[in-house]
Amino acid sequence: MFEKVLIANRGEIALRVHRACQEMGIKTVAVHSTADEDAMHVRLADESVCIGPPQASESYLNIPALISACEITGAEAVHPGYGFLSENARFAEILTEHDITFIGPTADHIRLMGDKIAAKAAVKRLGIPVVPGSEGGVTTDAQALAVAEETGYPVLVKAASGGGGRGMKVARSAAELPGALSAARTEAKAAFGDDTLYMEKYLSQPRHIEVQVVADSHGHAVHLGERDCSLQRRHQKVLEEAPSPALNDAARAEIGAIVSKAMKGLGYLGVGTIEFLYENGEFFFIEMNTRLQVEHPVTEAITGIDLVREQIRIAAGLEMSFTQEEVTFSGHAIECRINAEHSQTFMPSPGLITDYHTPGGLGVRVDSGAYAGYRIPPYYDSLIGKLIVHGRNRNECLMRLRRSLDEFVVDGVDTTIPLFKELMAEPEFQNGDYHIHWLEQFLEKYN
Ligand code: ADP
Q1: What is the number of the ligand 1 atom nearest to the C-alpha of 229?
Q2: In the prediction, which pLDDT does 446 show?
Q3: Among 110, 116, 277, which is best to mutate for testing ligand 1, by the most ligand atoms less than 8 A from CB?
Q4: Which residues are marked as active site?
Q5: Domain ranges in the chain?
Q6: Could you tell me the pLDDT band of residue 160, with boundaries at 50, 70 and 90?
Q7: CA distance to 139, 142, 155, 177, per residue, from 174 (Å)
Q8: Would strands 351-352 and 282-289 be described as parallel, antiparallel, or unpaired?
Q9: What CATH number has the domain spanning 132-201?
């Protein structure tokens, strides 16, 4: 097992990884920009190294600085968290060239899944159902019109290098399609430096259901059930729950088995998430994420399995610590993403947290690096913490979540806590009766 791991991230996820390492007796190295000197991940780690100025491109994305930090501290492995370099195949390769272990999948798998066109083709060959759409990329208007003719409108134009919900445009008719293509192309080029596009049928009321998989280098591949991430704004997740209110045990076992078999066929290593849209009892693959996800704690809550510990074990060449038969699902969990944003306008609200109190008690977990007196820097994403609540069933989970939100105090900045309090009172949310467009419709009253 590794003696020292460098955590190439910040905020709550850096803390999350640090905690797993501590429990495994592994020393941690935090890295930070000059804007994060006072951050909790820096305070808790065994060692820390400043890797550059505030801009992420010069610090958290600065590969030479990260390699130097490993060499100075003698870290043998790097955990990338999520975001930043977590899905950068070149980073994984460079680490390997320096005899440093990347705690994640192989560079080849990251590269394959990072190209959403290639990813779709690959999983289709492995027996996973995909959203109907273009076979490969679309370049001309004529080609796009022909695809849309076949799938029917509305269609969604998507970026092959897409992520974070960017580079996606809906066309509801042939007249709208050329405009959607050129808008998606411009957005994709600016965001990803790649304007390759593809098309899918735009599903009207699907749920976003994703399956967590874990695979080791000893030929094991298992699934840990699903997460329902249908509560979204601008194609970005806001709240996640497990299990999905829309699936029964048979559907869960069926999609889980299809996915874990496909991962074995792919020779996948580490943790990963296969994302689907689910409509009228059918699953349609949209993409695979080759990293730990923000919402992983809801799976941890209902399975009792520490996903970061498994990642580290697998990267060290060990077997994962459980078999599919040993996985049991218990109760219900919901995660709320607490962002430093206004709860109606979603305007970012960096600044000084003047008072801070987290909820506690049975079934309540808060993953956050925030504290009273902490100044949220304006340079990074606005997620300041996650509230994860577990109960024996969905009802108990909701009651506990309501109570926990009431207890949560974050003063000095705006947060999304008031939005979650409002959602708790919505009958459709209470009944688990929502789809990927539901939250945007709910928020329309503020526009
Ligand atoms: P990204 O990598 O940018 O997150 P995804 O392909 O994972 O993009 O899609 C993100 C979200 O966009 C989905 O959760 C869903 O809400 C919406 N979406 C993606 N594809 C479709 C589709 N074919 N029909 C309807 N909504 C879609």
Answers
A1: 14
A2: 82
A3: 277
A4: 291
A5: 4-87, 132-201, 207-446
A6: very high
A7: 16, 10, 10, 5
A8: unpaired
A9: 3.30.1490.20
Fold of 4-87: Rossmann fold (3.40.50)
What number does the ligand 1 atom closest to the CA of 165 have?
3
What is the C-alpha separation between 247 and 244, in angstroms, rounded? 6
Please give the pLDDT value at position 445: 85
Q: 207-446 belongs to which CATH class?
A: alpha beta
Residue 235 CA to ligand 1 center (angstroms) comes to 6
Ligand 1: nearest atom to the Cα of 204: 25
324 CA distance to ligand 1 centroid (A)? 29
Q: Which residue has the tokens 């290639």?
A: 118
Query: What ranges in 9-101 are assigned the alpha helix state H?
Result: 11-23, 40-44, 63-73, 89-97
Pairing of strands 4-7, 77-79: parallel
C-alpha–C-alpha distance, residues 234 and 439, integer Å: 10
Residue 133 to residue 284: CA distance in whole angstroms: 11
Q: To the nearest whole number, what is the mean pLDDT of the chain?
A: 97
Euclidean distance between CA atoms 397 and 388, whole angstroms: 10
What confidence category does residue 165 fall into, taking pLDDT thresholds of 50, 70 and 90?
Answer: confident
Select from 147, 286, 290, 435 the residue to mutate for testing ligand 1; criterion: most ligand atoms less than 8 Å from CB: 286
